[in-house]
Amino acid sequence: MELQKRETEIAKPYQELLKRISQKYVEGQAQAVRSVNEVIIQTNWEIGKYIVEYEQGGNPKAKYGAKLLETLARDLTLLHGRGFSRPNLNNMRMFYLSFPICQTLSNKLSWSHYCELIKISDELERSFYFQQNVHDNWSIRELKRQMDSGLFLRLALSA
Fold first, then answer.
1. Given 3-state DSSP classes, what are the helix, strand and coil percentages for the chain, each rounded to the nearest 5?
2. Rounded-to-integer distance, Cα 111 and Cα 7, Å
3. 80 and 144, same structural domain?
4. For the segment 8-19, what is each residue's pLDDT rounded down to a tens digit?
5. How far is CA 145 from CA 19, 67, 108, 128, in A?
6. pTM, full prediction
7. Do residues 108 and 44 make contact, with C-beta atoms less than 8 angstroms apart?
8. In the predicted model, what is the mean pLDDT of the chain?
9. Same structural domain for residues 74 and 135?
10. Structural domain of 31
11. 143 near 116, Cβ under 8 Å?
């Protein structure tokens, strides 16, 4: 009986140590994910900016051509590996065009969230889903569900 009591007394501090270490580890992982996401979003926005600036060549309107993205996709993939497909480069380009002011971006959203948002051509509708997503912390699945269900249009019609 005395041995069991002693083991219980030892177990409590150990369980507390285990709990504290686990909590710190989970917090660190979450912080790392947020940091990586922030860098990915910033980098993709800047790549999109470089592509648009190159396309425009100082002109107010771009002379957009698919050849540029195909060539970039091939060359960047050779240099850096995955992540530079033509569709992904086009997403980066559209990301910059859809969100031309970098400071307005939210690091609460992932690159996947932004890839869904840039599919919306109407600026007001895109802004609505952006704000709702930041406010309600939607997953990608929830964002798609809300977009597919026409939340923006339903709310606009009810107003």
1. 80, 0, 20
2. 50
3. no
4. 677 888 999 999
5. 37, 34, 19, 15
6. 0.81
7. no
8. 90
9. no
10. 2-104
11. yes
